[in-house]
């Protein structure tokens, strides 16, 4: 049973490979697509997840059979640093396996400083890892309404600062964009902190039609006015590009693999 897989559709823009270590999530985000994808009710999906059965065994088997030259994302289903049954011990063990087999890794979480417990493991990857946070709101009350189980906005922002200071390559995912003004404020904050190297910018997708009234073209123009002068790495997701056809984008802003982690930049886990 392979656990490393090739994503399809919109997920493919984030990573050429992925691995989901847990099923379920304690973050309880209102916009979460996972219950629908897994054909589960929110009651069944949200809670305290446990690791997938024998996931570490199958992960190592995948790594033994295949040499992965492009990044493996942790993860699309659930969050490897949410509150879970084993206190993210499976996450740490998976990272150690990935490092041992010299596999490039990207890690995306809303868990904030929970990620820092594995900072020592991140450092063993050298340039072979990129660690990111999903940023949605500056306003903590709005964040608590939409993402009640996640780390606070300030906690996530401070985590990015600590990761960057530790020499870890960092990225921020702006998807979903629920309130464009909040997302723009977050971008300005990360630029002030100089805590993020790579930005992935998307939109809110078909959640109760809230995205229908947003000027997405104006939002993208404002994003680029902030990030281009700062000379940041930027990827604009297809869903946003399609709603902003008059905005000129450079090739590197539309190439999903331009800034991913690749094997030739990895170091072997000791």
Task: Furnish the topology, listing elements before pairings.
Elements: E1 4-5, E2 17-19, E3 22-23, H1 34-37, H2 42-45, E4 50-51, H3 55-65, E5 72-74, H4 89-100, E6 105-109, H5 119-124, E7 129-134, H6 140-146, H7 153-165, E8 169-174, H8 180-193, E9 198-201, H9 216-227, E10 233-236, H10 238-241
Helix pairs in contact: 3-4, 8-9
Helix and strand succession? EEEHHEHEHEHEHHEHEHEH
Distance between the termini: 28 Å
Characterize the biggest β-sheet.
8 strands, mixed
Strand content: 5-15%
The gyration radius over C-alpha positions equals: 18 Å
Which structural class do the helices and strands define? alpha/beta
Helicity range = 25-40%
Please provide the count of β strands: 10
Overall pLDDT level: 94
What is the global morphology? globular
Lateral strand order in the biggest sheet:
1-2-5-6-7-8-9-10
Sequence stretches where pLDDT stays below 50 over 5 or more residues: 265-270
Per DSSP, the total helix count is 10
How would you concisely characterize the structure shown here?
The chain has 270 residues and is α/β, with parallel strands linked by helices. It has helices at residues 34-37, 42-45, 55-65, 89-100, 119-124, 140-146, 153-165, 180-193, 216-227, 238-241, and strands spanning 4-5, 17-19, 22-23, 50-51, 72-74, 105-109, 129-134, 169-174, 198-201, 233-236. 32% of the residues lie in helices and 14% in strands.
Give a structural overview:
- It is a single chain.
- It is built from 10 helices and 10 strands.
- It has helices spanning 34-37, 42-45, 55-65, 89-100, 119-124, 140-146, 153-165, 180-193, 216-227, 238-241, and strands at 4-5, 17-19, 22-23, 50-51, 72-74, 105-109, 129-134, 169-174, 198-201, 233-236.
- Helix 3 runs parallel beside helix 4 (89-100) and helix 8 runs parallel beside helix 9 (216-227).
- The chain has an 8-stranded mixed β-sheet. A two-stranded antiparallel sheet has the order 3-4.
- Residues 265-270 have low confidence and may be disordered.
- 32% of the residues lie in helices and 14% in strands.
- The chain is of the alpha/beta class and 270 residues long.
